[in-house]
Specification:
Layout lengths: L9 H7 L3 H13 L6 E3 L9 H18 L3 E4 L4 E4 L3 H13 L10
Antiparallel strand pairs: 1-3, 2-3
Helix pairs in contact: 2-4
Length: 109
């Protein structure tokens, strides 16, 4: 039995962007370029929480949410991620946010 892949809805994309740590990570991937070997270290993109707490929430909350939607591919042994198979589906929204960042609240990233 084949499983059909459904494109993430707009609400799903907004949910993926619902935390500053996930926005920072996705924007870093957007800026890194589209080559498959471009990866981003996720332990350097944590929010202002104590480092250990931020890394735990990144590993156990934020990365699984993004990976489940196919936006990132996680390499836990290297503490890095690269663009997932569905990253191109969220990149227009990321580009829109980045282009209008000066019009958004300061805490958006």
């Amino acid at each position: 039995m084949s499983e059909s892949i459904v494109s993430p809805s707009f609400d799903s994309q907004l949910d993926a962007l619902g935390h500053v740590a996930r926005r920072r990570l996705l924007l870093a991937l957007l800026d890194a370029g589209s080559e498959d070997d471009r990866s981003v270290a996720f332990d350097r993109l944590a929010d202002d929480s104590p480092e250990e707490d931020a890394l735990l929430s990144m590993r156990h909350l934020h990365l699984p949410k993004l990976e489940e939607r196919g936006f990132v591919a996680v390499h836990p042994e290297r503490r890095s991620v690269r663009r997932g198979p569905r990253f191109d589906e969220i990149s227009p929204l990321l580009e829109l946010l980045e282009a209008n960042g000066d019009r958004l609240p300061d805490d958006w990233v």
